[in-house]
Amino acid sequence: YSNAVTIDLWEALEEASDLPLSAMMNTWTKQTGFPVVTLSRTPDGALSLAQTRFFSDPSVVDPDDSRWDLPLTAQVGHGSGGGGGPELHRVGIWTASDLPARDAAFEVHAPTSVGSKFPADSPWIKLNGLQQGFYIDNYDADGWLRLQSPCQQLVLSEVDRMCLLDNAFVLTRAGKLDLANALEFSRAFANDPSYLIWKSLSTHLTFYGSLIHQTPTFPKFQAYVRRFYGPQLARLGWFTQDTDQESTAYFRSEVIRMLGTAKDPAVLADAVIHFQTLVTTPEASRVTSDLRAVIFRVVATHLQGQVYDQLRTLYESSDLAELKNDCLGGMGAVQNKWNDTLEWALSGKYAFAGVVRSGIEGADFTWAFIQANWDRLNDKYIPNKVGSLVCLAIGRFQSEDKAVEVEAFLGDKKTTAYKRRLDTTLEGIRIKAACFRRDATHLDQWLTAQTL
User: Fold this and answer.
1) Are 137 and 70 in contact (CB under 8 A)?
2) What is the pTM of this model?
3) Which residues form the ERAP1-like C-terminal domain (predicted)?
4) What is the per-residue pLDDT across 324-337, written as a single tens digit (0 to 9) for each?
5) Residue 179 and residue 79 in one domain
6) CA 154 – CA 194 distance, rounded (Å)
7) Backbone φ and ψ of 4, nearest 5°
8) What is the CATH number of the domain that holds 59?
9) Prior bond to 86 cis, omega within 30?
10) Number of domains in the chain
């Protein structure tokens, strides 16, 4: 085998399959990146395909003539309501490497013969069926609208549903899909039973909630979250049930966390009751340890200094590492104790994450603390640990001004050990800044118009 090279593998597979695999694999192994493939309907109802290289930063222009030969599959609906199926439709390989140059939008368009292989009369088409390809599938506004039904009716698999949801928001952040379309699409999952779906929903909604946390739009966002997540808590409840599945505890915790962030009155009141039981008579508490961290944080955010001493006492009296971490998370939410918490962290208690998770304000405070105590931190921790603290703090920032401030402070500092992580974090800050400029007004308009 010592004389075998990569092309030998492709040629052997090509001979066995009678497919042009060598040429296809060259487009994947000899260039970087991966594509976004967009399925659209023309005015006459025909289907068309286009691909372009994906960049998370919409300001980046592809310097190369990137295109990929793609094995195309699709999940296809049938029946008048689209509730039948889905059927896996194999189209074949779309050979894009020998097509003409890209258009002004840097897209490579497939010949009409490729689009014609899809059943245009199908009520909906989901590209990349069963997620067998390495590309992000995108659709025109009508295509995203059509896909709501198979997601809502659970016709598509959990994997396909979750990937569609993630793709919608990933494309929105990259400036390739209107935020209103992604948010409208997410409403199709209001009754989805999957924890993974709701975990993904929470991640994306939290991202946009953080963007507008310090704006007049945030109360509208909180009201939407209360309406959207409330029915799930009513179904799951606070306590373990006989019908619970393995993931239900995580599901319950995620829902309560989101409702706590949204200041749901009933959740806040119940959380305070459970908190006092956990702190004073833990053996009498009916809530599981999975909920302890979220209860501590929700209550500490709500009551602030009233519970700080209780959490610190509980931390110092416990030998359980998990309980200590839960206490630190709650202590970090108490704003008027941030300096005490971070000073305490320097004495050996790792509480930075708890403060940073308190939002932009906590990140600002932590970053200022890091700057003021730079020498102390570097004397105490190895460079990689310092880099973790820095990136943890600045990762919450979302403005160009903050990115410039960070670069100015670190310009003469030794950051070689964590340069790549720092560069990635700074890029993320600038992407969030671009999202805010592009989408903040649209988010406000969409939230204003919502009634569930």
Assistant:
1) no
2) 0.91
3) 124-430
4) 889 988 988 898 88
5) yes
6) 10
7) -85, 145
8) 2.60.40.1910
9) yes
10) 3
